[in-house]
Amino acid sequence: MLAISGKTLRRDFSKAYTCVFWDVEDLGVPDDHDPVSICQNINSALTNKGYQEFGMVEFRAYGELNKIWDEFILAGIRVIPAGEKCERVKRMVWDILLWAMQNPSEYHNPLNVMVISKNMSEDREFLGVLLGLESRGYNVLLADSGNVESLNQLPFVSSVWLWKSLSDGGYPFVNGAQDIKIIPTDSEDKASQGK
Fold first, then answer.
1. Helix 85-102 vs helix 124-135: crossing angle, to nearest 10
2. What is the DSSP string of 6-33?
3. List of residues 6+ apart from 177 with CB closer than 8 A
């Protein structure tokens, strides 16, 4: 959203370029997945939410150099070596700011930024950076494994996923529950139309 003289204008982020900043040490690839399927599932989750009608998605993974394997690179994920949690967060913040400087979000060219990390609600500096991005026209999307309710209450965050749901291509968390799109069966659809 964009605020102009007290009015809020809605921006269309459905066709926007999305950059995903993923802490693979905190929220790694689930046992029944691989990096390629995670990328496909995140793309599906974004499409399900209406964020990726025609938009491109770039993935960046942060973790220990020894633990990030070739599968990430083969999946088209940019690998950024960063060790301990504090170092990974600082590197992600730095890279997000650098990316934002290189990719300014403008009304005719909106951008999505997705952060996948654990315990984001506890890091005020990180949240401050994301707030600053939202105030400059970026659409902020988050995924966490734990306290998504507190993240969902942040006014500058558009959507929050539980990592399990996002990694499976599911829907985001909304008001204490997972946002589930109910698609009527043919018989339910005909019944609602009076046929």
1. 10
2. TEEE----TT-EEEEEEETTTS---TT-
3. none
Question: For each of the chain's 195 residues, which pLDDT tens digit applies?
Answer: 444 333 234 566 766 789 999 999 999 999 999 999 999 999 999 888 877 655 688 999 998 866 667 888 889 999 998 888 899 999 999 999 999 999 988 766 788 899 999 988 888 899 999 999 999 989 899 998 877 777 777 888 888 898 999 999 988 887 544 444 433 444 444 444 554
Instruction: Indicate the burial class of 104 (C-beta count within 10 angstroms; 0-12, 13-18, 19 or more).
Output: exposed
Architecture per CATH, domain 11-192, reads as 3-Layer(aba) Sandwich (3.40)
- If one counts every other C-beta atom within 10 angstroms of the C-beta of residue 100, the result is 19
Model confidence, pTM: 0.81
Nearby residues of 188 by Cβ (< 8 Å), 6 or more positions away: none
Indicate the domain borders of the chain.
Answer: 11-192
Q: Which residues pair with 7 in a beta bridge?
A: 4
